[in-house]
Amino acid sequence: MANEGGRPVPTAPNTRGADAARVAVERVRDGVAARLAGRWTADQAPAVEAASAEMLAADTLSAGSPLVIDLSGLARLDTLGAWVLERTRAALPAGTTYAGASPEHLILLREVAYREAAPAARRRRFNPLDPVASLGSGMRSLGHQGLAGLAFLGEVVAGCLRVLARPRSFRGPALVNQVEQIALRGAPIIMLISFLVGCIVTQQGIIQLQRFGAQTYVVNMIGILTLRELGVLLTSIMVAGRSGSAFTAEIGSMRMREEVDALRVMGLDPIEILIVPRIIALMFALPLLAFLADLAALAGGALTSLLYGGLSLEAFAFRLQNAIGFRHLAIGLIKAPFMALIIGIIASVEGFMVEGSAESLGRHVTASVVKSIFMVIVLDGLFAVFFAAIDF
């Protein structure tokens, strides 16, 4: 149909013709049957809604008899019709089923299956004991994580023993690659940060000691502080943020792609293949990086003393030689392997805890860095107390 200008005039959808959606509800031997006919599609929406209301309001359903919705007479069914059918079925007595549905109809009905909205969670009132309960829950979780770390440490030790018993199974190229990633590629940034921190600590020490005319003792301060605490602590924090997070991300990605399970299926031990080379490389690289960080921090202290404190390099070296001994260097280097072991264990455990989502990977990488830094500082404090107790 067209108007005077020749443009077509839109017509209303046919909701009363032979293709209109309709339903006939009748009682059968085993209960009640609703026989559908016509097109249950979007263009028949008013008729679809009317037929749905007719099913709900039929007198034959008053006794709560089971209903069978017969779809064999449908001319066509689309998403709207399927959703209305599912909504209607959810409002009908329990036990309502479909009959005479084609495979295509069943697929569509399954995809648009009606689900009730989840009830809103009731808002809990504040309880004064909630902080105590949260603290207890956190301590219990911390204990479980500690036990998991100890169990994983046992697996790593067992893996190392198996490698020692079968030296040919050790992955030498993996160890060399990890040493390159941790030590060689990490040395520049670690040395730069240590140099800058050495400059800052020395500058602040000169400012404070000038009040007492003892600015030359800044050499003693920077030498002992760097060798005993600052160098290894800065290095461990940097390695935890750089290499520890990489360990977690690599192992977590392999978990997401099920590569760890594939190794087990092939009869290979993931601990020997993935963890042992990384932890050995970390325990070898961290003392080396700590030594380089010590040198960089002392170089920064010497340069600042020359430019800011008027102390020549010869005088700095002479006072440094008198202020420090081998034991100060040994203390820092003794701490390094233990800190490397802590970082490697935490990073590996968090990597194996990653689930199959990017959110889980990001969460565990963050947890790996935070826990590693925290445990490194705690371990450094324990070592400080221990060395002070034995007067070393």
From TrEMBL:
InterPro entries: ABC_MlaE_roteobac (IPR003453), MlaB-like_STAS (IPR058548), Permease_MalE (IPR030802), STAS_dom_sf (IPR036513)
A Gene Ontology cellular-component term: ATP-binding cassette (ABC) transporter complex
Record Gene3D superfamilies: STAS domain
Subcellular location: Cell inner membrane
Residue ranges of domain MlaB-like STAS in the record: 35-92
Membrane topology, record value: Multi-pass membrane protein
Alphabetized UniProt keyword annotations: Cell inner membrane, Cell membrane, Membrane, Transmembrane, Transmembrane helix
UniProt keyword Cell cycle present: no
UniProt keyword Transcription, yes or no: no
GO molecular function: phospholipid transporter activity
Annotated transmembrane regions: 147-165, 186-206, 218-241, 262-289, 295-317, 329-349, 369-390
UniProt xrefs under PANTHER family: ABC TRANSPORTER PERMEASE, ABC TRANSPORTER PERMEASE PROTEIN-RELATED
Function: Could be part of an ABC transporter complex.
UniProt family annotation: Belongs to the MlaE permease family.
Protein name in UniProt: STAS domain-containing protein
